[in-house]
Amino acid sequence: MFFPAAVTPTRVPHRTRPTGRPTPPPERHDVQRYGWVIRLRPDQRETYLRLHRAVWPDVAQTLRAANIRNYSIFLHQDLLFGYYEYVGEDHDADQRRIADDPRTQEWWTLTDPCQESLAEPGSGHWWAPMHEVWHLTGEPS
Predict the structure, then answer these.
(1) Whole-structure pTM over 0.85, yes or no?
(2) In terms of Cα–Cα distance, which of 83, 70, 72 is closest to 34?
(3) Residue 141 DSSP SS3
(4) Is pLDDT at 27 greater than 60 in this prediction?
(5) SS3 31
(6) pLDDT reported for residue 140
(7) How far lies 56's CA from each of 12, 83, 128, in Å?
(8) Known catalytic residue: 52?
(9) Which of 14, 52, 76, 131 is catalytic?
(10) How many other β-carbons are positioned within 10 Å of the β-carbon of residue 80?
């Protein structure tokens, strides 16, 4: 489910409210957004959906500890699109922390058979990275 990232993240700059008062800073001065895609095996659809209706709390906690926020997985036909925001300082190190977690590794033994990678062979990715082409913030410019 998670991925070493060779993708250039998108940074969200700190903004000012229309009143001229600065917005409270997020956990970091900026956020890096990541999007990924993978194929869901049709015969494993119900298994995958059942697993994600009850994600193990310790797997979710490992993600939080690795500076992952606002993680969502969307489904369209047989494609899964994953999106998250990264608020840490070293994405690669945090991804290794996730990959080294025994409970997350156990989770992957259940979820990986449900998926078919679309990543470039030899890239080291399971989910294929997607590149952001546009983003609308919730704040007026």
Answers:
(1) no
(2) 83
(3) coil
(4) no
(5) strand
(6) 74
(7) 30, 19, 24
(8) yes
(9) 52
(10) 20
